Each structure stands twice: as C-alpha cells, then as structure tokens.
Amino acid sequence: MTPDLMESGAQRTARAHGLPYPGGSTESGGRAADFGRHATPGEVDITHGRILYLEDVCVSFDGFKAINKLSLDIAPGELRCIIGPNGAGKTTMMDIITGKTRPDSGTVFFGSTIDLLRHKEAEIAQLGIGRKFQKPTVFEQLTVFENLELALKTDKGVKRSMLFKLDSAQSDRLAEIIETIHLADSVSRMAGNLSHGQKQWLEIGMLLMQDPKLLLLDEPVAGMTDEETARTAELFLTLKGKHSLMVVEHDMSFIRTISEIVTVLCDGSVLAQGTLDEVQADERVIEVYLGR
Ligand SMILES: Nc1ncnc2c1ncn2[C@@H]1O[C@H](COP(=O)(O)OP(=O)(O)OP(=O)(O)O)[C@@H](O)[C@H]1O
Ligand SMILES: [Mg+2]
C-alpha cells in the first residue's frame, strides 16, 4: 500500500462517527485532510497504476460476514472478470464500490486520491463510476435515441431538462455510442420493442454517455442468446482500454472470450486470481465453484 492511500486510525474513527476529519496533526498535515473532498469528474489520479483499490474491506449483515477482508485492485483500462459461487459477495462488492452499502471497515479508493467511502452513491456516479445491474432498466416508452439523450440529463431539474439540447460534441458522442452498442439501425425504435440483449446494450450505452472511467457490470449476459453474448463480448473488448471494466459473470465461455485476469471470490474474499486457465486448474476453485 502506498503512503498516499494510508489513513491513520484516528481519521478512520472520525469518519466512522461522522466527526470532523483530523488532518493537521498528521505527518502529511492538511493534505490528508483534503483527500477526496475536491474530487471532480474527469480527475482521477492513476499515477500509482490503479483505478480502483480495495483493502481489507469487511461488511456483515446481522453477524454474517458477506465481505471478509477483501483486497483487490484494478489497473486503468483493465477488463477484470470476477467469478465465484452464489453468495460469494460479488454484488455486495459492487454495492460497496458504488456507495450503496457502507462497509464496516476497510479502504476503497478510486485512483490514488478519491476515498469512495466519503462519497454518497450519486456523487460516486458523477465521479465516473457507472454501474449496470443485471436487469435492464431502460425507459420502455422512449426511443433508443431519447434514452441515450436522457442519460445526459441526470441531475438537471425538470425545467432545465426540457430546455436541454445536445451540443455538437454530445451529438457526435451519441452517434458514436449508437454504433458501438450495435443499435444504429434502431435509433427510432421504442426501447420496449428491443430484444433483451438490445436493452442491455442500450443501458450500457446510457452509461457510456456519461463517459465513465470505471464500469461495473453484474451478470451482463444472463438471459442473452448465444449471438447476443458473442456481440457483448466484442463490445466489452472495444471498451477495454478506453474504460476500466469489472465484469461479474457465471458464463465461463463468455469469460474465456474476454478475460485477462480473473479474480475468484468466495466467502467474501479473494480465493484465487490469475488467467482463466490458472484459476480453473486451482484445486480450491474446483472445490468451491467449478467442480460443483
Ligand atoms: N442487504 C443484505 N442483507 C442481508 N444479507 C445480504 C444483503 N446483501 C447480501 N447479503 C448476503 O450476502 C451474501 C453475498 O451476497 P451477494 O449478493 O453479494 O452474492 P453474489 O456473489 O453476488 O451471488 P450471486 O452469484 O448469486 O449473484 C449472501 O449470503 C447474501 O444473502
Ligand atoms: Mg450477485
């Protein structure tokens, strides 16, 4: 762990109890006290080679440790696959990263300087972390184009939304994204008439409109046809590099197509990590997951 990511026990305790953040008496003085406070979209410090960093994260639900000393990090532009048995804590990990669930302890950083545990869910989205839940959530009564346009209007009031017009850069971006998500022929179609796979791509497109640095995708190909799954793999490979991706999936052939490093979660922590071949050959992984 780098010194920049460290936090004194006093600071951690203060945060946990909602007290003023002590900074002046620490070695790094006021600098530490300011970490994460002035973060704005587009500014993620990746000089340490990590876009996401979790260390010793724990969360319990009624005494049950859903996440147990979980540590992992993701490099900028990486496409990380996460696999593991039902109940391993994969979705809960995403809940923690996106601010939906607060961990009991541990460290969660976006880049080297943004302490995600100090931000609310909406702020985390604005900082550049987009999340795709398993079920598609598009506006069925609106067209593909309108759905994408709407993705830029979040956090504007009703009046401002009605007056909102895409500028030329945003129009270009929308056109590019429609191509990327394979919906160029469906711009004017009602989202409700799209196939399940197309709805999933549209929702990914809506996330892309906000130009996220990091995309979290929970079981994105569940319920897709084989052809849709293959196209989704292509899509993710296109997004890799421009964005960092964390993809949770149970579909091993999909994982084989897209994966570089695969992290296996079990009982709320990392059981194994490596290429898919490496983790598939790991006896512990076979025991708890693949061999079932
Ligand atoms: N809000 C909650 N309250 C109580 N228990 C919870 C809560 N959220 C998750 N859990 C429990 O935490 C554990 C981890 O759940 P999680 O949904 O993160 O697993 P998962 O790895 O995503 O599983 P799956 O592959 O089935 O989606 C499970 O035992 C689940 O029942
Ligand atoms: Mg899950």
From TrEMBL:
Residue intervals of the ABC transporter domain: 52-292
Alphabetized Pfam families for the sequence: ABC_tran (PF00005), BCA_ABC_TP_C (PF12399)
GO molecular function term, any single one: ATP binding
Spans annotated as Disordered: 1-36
Database matches in InterPro entries: AAA+_ATPase, ABC_AA/LPS_Transport, ABC_transporter-like_ATP-bd, ABC_transptr_urea_ATP-bd_UrtD, BCA_ABC_TP_C, P-loop_NTPase
Protein name (database record): Urea transport system ATP-binding protein
Alphabetical keyword list: ATP-binding, Cell membrane, Membrane, Nucleotide-binding, Transport
Organism: Variovorax ginsengisoli
